[in-house]
Specification:
Blueprint lengths: L2 E2 L9 E3 L20 E2 L10 E6 L6 H6 L4 E5 L2 H5 L10 E11 L5 E2 L12 E4 L2 E2 L2 E4 L3 E8 L6 E5 L5 E6 L2 E9 L2 E3 L4 E7 L8 E6 L2 E8 L27 E7 L6 E2 L11 E4 L3 E8 L9 E6 L4 E6 L14 E5 L3 E7 L4 E7 L2 H5 L3 E7 L5
Parallel strand pairs: 6-11, 10-18, 19-22, 21-28
Antiparallel strand pairs: 1-3, 2-4, 4-5, 6-7, 6-8, 8-9, 11-16, 12-15, 12-17, 13-14, 13-16, 17-18, 19-20, 22-26, 23-25, 23-27, 24-26, 27-28
The structure holds copper (II) ion.
């Protein structure tokens, strides 16, 4: 990759969800000075998935993302291409990057960090447009939904309460499609969904909403040919075995606004919080304390350089759409989420809350994955 920084200020580009060595991750240790080019090399070796990239530089991540620095990275593989899913990019396979923004009088972005809990915009944007529409045939459409907002959760539904399928989570296809009426997605998370428009008539209008706010509109066109399918089986997912875990780590996410901590302290670039041996499997128990007054409903917790699996939420088996590969998990207030994770790449990696203002205020730690056979 050749990442040329023409911004006039320091940045970095983190490949969110990509499993690569720490030096290629694009975190705060891989800053790109103004005018410089960063040339990481890596081999993509993970299942088909919808990933994204965004800056991850100390102090300006949140504002750089807000001003537009984010993009998508789509992985395909033999399996994903052989299933018969809608996969014609821009035709029946469409990314929906969800963000929220406020605006100045002249239409430029207005970045305001609400002291309470991050930057919330007055308008929801889909791929940079406010309440856009898409003309669709009477066919199945696949949408790659990315929550690219700084702090806002989305709770997506079709206004007529029709069901749709979720087929993938952060790290790739689920084992089987999950039929649902709603999709909760927190900052950093991705989900692929399939909406079947074949039951609608030409001229119908279908609204996608979040908490009863219009996100976008689908305008139904004429009948079209549809050779795509939603197969009963999508992928084989290797279940990480709890008995192979070498230990359990506790992660405590605390506070709100600027008063956030991770395990009682704030991020320090010069402190490695955890060391892990390459190939080790660990269980992480992530908890959040209660929100004070108008506090946040929870924290989206992200680990770099790997994909994990959710073992339980407050002791309960995770919902079917949370049983695939994940790199970001929303931990609700007063909830304990247990995940199992394996570290397959060497180097220094971040783990943090993906509310960007929390990350920036120090709700982040770093772990070093060490290869015992080197030196
Ligand atoms: Cu947070």
């Amino acid at each position: 990759m050749h990442v040329a920084n023409e911004l006039g200020e320091t940045t970095s580009v983190h490949w969110h969800g990509l499993e690569v060595e720490g030096t290629a991750d694009g975190g705060p240790h891989q800053v790109i000075a103004a005018g410089e080019t960063w040339n990481p090399t890596f081999t993509v070796n993970q299942p088909a998935a919808t990933l994204w990239f965004h800056p991850h530089v100390i102090g300006t991540t949140a504002i750089q993302v807000y001003y537009g620095l984010a993009g998508l990275l789509l992985i395909e593989d033999e399996n994903s291409k052989s299933l018969g899913l809608p996969d014609d990019y821009g035709i029946n396979d469409i990314p929906l990057v969800l963000q929220d923004r406020s605006f100045n009088q002249d239409g430029s972005f207005l970045y305001v960090t609400n002291m309470m809990d991050g930057a919330f915009g007055d308008y929801i944007l889909v791929n940079g447009a406010i309440a856009p529409y898409l003309e669709v045939g009477q066919v199945k459409m696949r949408f790659r939904v990315v929550n690219g907002a700084n702090a806002r959760n989305f709770y997506l539904e079709l206004a007529d309460r029709s069901t749709f399928y979720q087929i993938a989570s952060d790290g790739g296809l689920l084992e089987a499609p999950v039929l649902t009426e709603s999709l909760f997605i927190s900052p950093g998370e991705r989900a692929e969904i399939i909406i079947d428009f074949s039951k609608y008539k030409e001229g119908d209008v279908v609204e996608l909403i979040s908490d009863n706010v219009l996100v976008m509109t689908f305008r139904i066109g004429g009948a079209s040919e549809d050779n795509t399918v939603v197969p009963e089986r999508l992928a084989e997912i290797e279940k990480l075995d709890e008995r192979l875990a070498i230990g359990t780590k506790t992660i405590e996410l605390d506070g709100m606004g600027h008063m956030v901590t991770l395990n009682g302290r704030k991020f320090d670039m010069h402190r490695i919080d955890d060391k892990v041996t390459l190939g080790d499997i660990e269980i992480w128990e992530i908890t959040t304390t209660g929100a004070m007054m108008m506090g946040s409903p929870g924290h989206p917790f992200h680990i770099h350089g790997t994909q994990f699996q959710i073992l339980s939420r407050d002791g309960q088996e995770p919902a079917a759409n949370e049983q695939g590969w994940k790199d970001t998990v929303f931990v609700r207030a007063n909830e304990t989420v247990r995940i199992i994770v394996r570290f397959n790449y060497e180097g220094v990696f971040m783990y943090h809350c993906h509310i960007l203002e929390h990350e920036e205020a120090g709700m982040m730690g770093q772990l070093e994955v060490v290869n015992p056979f080197v030196k």
